[in-house]
């Protein structure tokens, strides 16, 4: 074995590596078996499959189909079984457990409280149930030898008119498990500027927010999210590539907006597998993440919807390692970028980087020195 090949992380090492996740939807990450059980318990009879394995496949195929209607239908099913206190707490606890088992040490998980009111819960009850679930999941993970910390992001839907109310809710539960705010939903026809009152309120409260922008819709959406709304981070932001020119000889020229995003170190929440499913990119090799990484944008790597995309943080990294021959140094770069861009206080982010992330990668990088099965006592 040479040090050259040993430097490429194996799937098993990728799973053990400390990872940070900033863009993951609670209603996009349920275990198929849990959906089946919750549907039975809550009397929801709209599932397309009641066998959990077949249901998991159905979710991935619907998300892969290229049909927006089928893609949105997947969330109708997950939200339908997330309408009671116990169901929300269970889904949140399992989310934290699953991420911890995958080596995620810090995660910000987002959901839209307004989508969980069908059976009479109040917005506050939804937030408290999810927070309780995350704390329970953190405890169970610790009992299994994993450490994870999970913060919630409250999402408002672009097409609805409750953004200010949800922003106020995020502010009320700040330091009580909620770390920020997000806006999601169809970009076309629903510019983020419709919700300026919510963003202005959050800025006045010194609070943090990210905006889904530049996924399918192009540069104007990114520009509005940053320059009108003042987003701290961009959900996806992958279309920033439209403002970057690559010449035939490999020369690269950044437009004003792309320069601004890079100069100001605006974090981009990249979700490659999700982009492949929605058609925002055609292959991992052609995904803008390769070029944007070379140009040193502040990139983070994320899952978006683990259930619909059949993915995990480890799988996202596996694709990048395979496609771009990324090393542990690249993995650490993405992970430190994500931790720097998290919405928890600076001293806590720094401690995670210095006490958890860097030692974790140092340990992994040294493993090739001690091949398995070889005595170390020489
Ligand atoms: Zn998303």
UniProtKB/TrEMBL annotation:
Keywords: Hydrolase, Metal-binding, Nucleotide metabolism, Zinc. It holds the Pfam family A_deaminase. InterPro entries: A_deaminase (IPR028893), A_deaminase_dom (IPR001365), Ado/ade_deaminase (IPR006330), Metal_Hydrolase (IPR032466). It is an enzyme of class 3 (hydrolase). Substrate binds at residues 25, 27, 185. One of its GO terms (molecular function) is hydrolase activity. Residues 18-358 form the Adenosine deaminase domain. Catalyzes the hydrolytic deamination of adenosine and 2-deoxyadenosine. This is Adenosine deaminase. It comes from Streptomyces ochraceiscleroticus. The gene is add.
